[in-house]
Amino acid sequence: MTGILYVVATPIGNLDDISRRATQVLAQVARIAAEDTRHSARLLQHLGINTPLVAVHDHNEAGRVQSLIAQLVAGDSLALISDAGTPLISDPGFRLVAAAHEANIQVVPVVGACAAIGALSAAGLPSDRFTFEGFLSAKTTARQTQLRALLHETRTLIFYEAPHRILECVQDMCLVFGGDRRVVLARELTKTFETVRQMTLAELSAWVEQDSNQQRGEIVLVLEGAAENASLAAEAEIDALLLKLLKYLPVKQTAQLAAELTGHKKNALYDRALLLQK
Ligand code: SAM
Questions:
Q1: Which of 166, 242, 262, 272 is the most buried (most CB within 10 A)?
Q2: What is the 98 CA–ligand 1 centroid distance (Å)?
Q3: Distance between CA atoms of 153 and 242, rounded to whole angstroms?
Q4: Are 61 and 92 in contact (CB under 8 A)?
Q5: Per-residue pLDDT tens digits for 32-69
Q6: Which domain, by its residues, includes 94?
């Protein structure tokens, strides 16, 4: 019998958010693979659990996977945890889970806290369809390009952001999406200074700029998607731009220039330009 790989969510602040099932699993497995063993040791101590910990983080995951899979194949069950929330959600663990599937190991999620889902559930923005974008680039130009590529996304958008970049990030969102879109700042969820506020991007930018407390702690931004008809209008606008460029340039340069101007993917614009040319 092979062991089971449990992917266990841990709290994102309030320790009472650990589930009874998560506690039982962490106590019963042979070993816990943790992103930062010192950090997780504190959680285990709080829970009165002394299961051995092994470090699995972005820098050693590739090297550790083989031995962890060997232990699972030999019959030991393991738990995977990250510093906070659900493993693999902007956290390590993907290689281990993928390797477990390849080795026909049963993978069991032990569900619990996730900052993105917590923020969405309290945001009051459409939640029937959404896209999780994780962290944007730390570099301004790359971040603005990423945001431009999302300009016509109609689903609600969820971003993680570091406190020291929140102001720049919101300012870039204002620049790309305009100041009128609704956005929710979900900060320090489940903790003492928990803040969940919905407003426009322009209002958020002004608030974060004047109140430095809003530039502290852990932050999720939930952004309203583009209006449906805006995305149709945008497609028509792109076609018009491509047709104009095609009058003067070959397809390849048209796609290149249109990608620079709109932030859309060059390959998709190339295919569309080819079609329009025909
Ligand atoms: N795996 C985690 C999860 O399930 O949410 C996310 C880990 S990621 C490295 C850390 C980021 O998640 C933070 O920078 C912040 O954007 C978000 N985050 C984590 N805890 C949070 C909290 N209590 N309140 C708001 N955002 C939080």
A1: 242
A2: 23
A3: 20
A4: yes
A5: 999 999 999 999 999 999 999 999 988 888 889 999 99
A6: 4-113
